[in-house]
Amino acid sequence: MASFSFFASILLIFLSVSWIFNACNASSQGGVGFSMNLIHKDSPRSPHYQPSLTSKDRVRAMIDRSFSRVRYLSSIFSARGGGGDVAGISNSPASAPAPAPASASASAPASDSNVYSKVIAGDGDYIMELEIGTPPVKIMASADTGSDLIWIQCQPCEDCYNQTDPIFDPRKSSTFNGSVSCNDDICQALPYKTCSSQNTCQYEYEYGDLSVTSGTLSKDTFTFSSDSNKKLQVQGNSSSSSIPGIAFGCSYNSKGTFEANEDGLIGLGGGHASLVRQLDSSINGKFSYCLVPYKENASSTLNLGDNAVVNGPGVVTVPMINGLYDTFYTLQFTSVDLGKHNIPVPRGLSTQMIVDSGTTLTFIPLELLVLVMDDLSKIVNLNETNDPEGSLQLCYSYSSKAPAYPFPDITFNFGNSSRLVLSAMQTFIFIADDIVCLAMAETMGGMGFSVFGNIAQQNLHVGYDLHNKSISFAPANCSTFKI
Ligand SMILES: *[C@@H]1O[C@H](CO)[C@@H](O)[C@H](O)[C@H]1NC(C)=O
Ligand SMILES: *[C@@H]1O[C@H](CO)[C@@H](O)[C@H](O)[C@H]1NC(C)=O
Ligand SMILES: *[C@@H]1O[C@H](CO)[C@@H](O)[C@H](O)[C@H]1NC(C)=O
Ligand SMILES: *[C@@H]1O[C@H](CO)[C@@H](O)[C@H](O)[C@H]1NC(C)=O
Ligand SMILES: *[C@@H]1O[C@H](CO)[C@@H](O)[C@H](O)[C@H]1NC(C)=O
Ligand SMILES: *[C@@H]1O[C@H](CO)[C@@H](O)[C@H](O)[C@H]1NC(C)=O
Ligand SMILES: *[C@@H]1O[C@H](CO)[C@@H](O)[C@H](O)[C@H]1NC(C)=O
Ligand SMILES: *[C@@H]1O[C@H](CO)[C@@H](O)[C@H](O)[C@H]1NC(C)=O
């Protein structure tokens, strides 16, 4: 029942207006756009980068992360009791969630009465940098399109994980507000919260691997600014954009598998508490990213506002549908083309697909994956081999030094002639110097949606328009991407 009221409140909030920017000053209004670096955790630019690892180890780590992320997403779905749109049968999204099943909650602590609150520790493949407070303090955090809450570790810590950067001390910020009331809309939108005796909002977030972070919902000024090392473009007059009153979690207690190089997590999901929803009118409901192929030594970009307008040759704009959760950006796909052969999503399978920057592989239903693999086997004239770890289903012996990829384009069709054509670079991944595999896997455990992962999104400028409720994709060279 707790989960029911949570979803009911999310829905009400979703329908209500952009209250927060009534209080915002004008500095950020009117055609503002800014961009910042988004760094792949396994790229040479990442603070996580371990030079001693081989590229094989890195790819394996990415693949493993991707499976654990999707395992978690799947547990959310079963908690929700299935439903959604399936091929040939169009249902409206379920309006009342089912309680968490025993399977998802068996080993979880008490707060798991709402499985939705779980996200994965070290969530996603990308980290971003921004500044919080006055004077501004630099924060490095996971950028996650699969969750909403923004949180960082704060002093005084009761129990913090080891963090490389100094831990944010709110007492040194003149604009910090640590007493956000329980009636605040953002507090209301949080899945697992309690009210202190002073009526301030306390939250607890539990992750898929049972890592937990908890603290006080707070507000402070966020600054997206230039920095000598970070090539950042701000359109308009100023070199930085400060936005007051952004709600985030000040975590005083975090346990689990958090990474020392991350000060917290920036939720970029579609739910009310996320950074992009809070910035909503300042950024005209728009954000985008351009993901550099993970092996390249260049930073990806995250763009907000006017910089996030995706257009130009080859742009494909697809309407978002109301998916199972506000958090997930959901599209509906109808079929996959291999070369000229069209493979519709088999009848009865879900056509919902979430676009996620934090999942490495693309996950589609097994029945569809098998058809895609059958077609590839017929077209591709290479010797098949096995993934030694058994994670990926279709691999070939092929040298990563070979000049061209002998693989057909794979096209995702989103209906109404919206065709997103992916080249081999976006659909195959070298797991060793001489083994290349299809970067796709099957959805798990009756998961109600497919996941469009970040290998598939490499070298595309992917723009989310929350007002127009659409996602646009345009071919780009993200290594040299400029607004
Ligand atoms: C990545 O590029 C930067 C400069 O753009 C360079 O300083 C650094 O050595 C490069 N790292 C690797 C591992 O190539
Ligand atoms: C944190 O780092 C300190 C110093 O490097 C070390 O002594 C301590 O054991 C670490 N704590 C944890 C929980 O890893
Ligand atoms: C902190 O934010 C709350 C709104 O949640 C507001 O009522 C309160 O006045 C603010 N406090 C300060 C010191 O600005
Ligand atoms: C914009 O830039 C001009 C020239 O650099 C400066 O005179 C003006 O004060 C700036 N306006 C704002 C709002 O920063
Ligand atoms: C809004 O979304 C629709 C698809 O739902 C698309 O056709 C249209 O181009 C989009 N408009 C803008 C301004 O992006
Ligand atoms: C496939 O394997 C056979 C036997 O090892 C070899 O002769 C042939 O050249 C291989 N074909 C390709 C396309 O690599
Ligand atoms: C195709 O366009 C029509 C009218 O714009 C819209 O109602 C329908 O939902 C679209 N179908 C898909 C699969 O996007
Ligand atoms: C992108 O641009 C870089 C630098 O010019 C170049 O090395 C790379 O090959 C380009 N990538 C693609 C996919 O065109």
Automatic annotation (TrEMBL):
Q: Which domain of life is it from?
A: Eukaryota
**Keywords tagged on the record:** Hydrolase
Q: What is its EC number?
A: 3.4.23.12
What is the name attached to this protein's record?
Aspartic peptidase A1 family protein
Native source species: Dioscorea alata
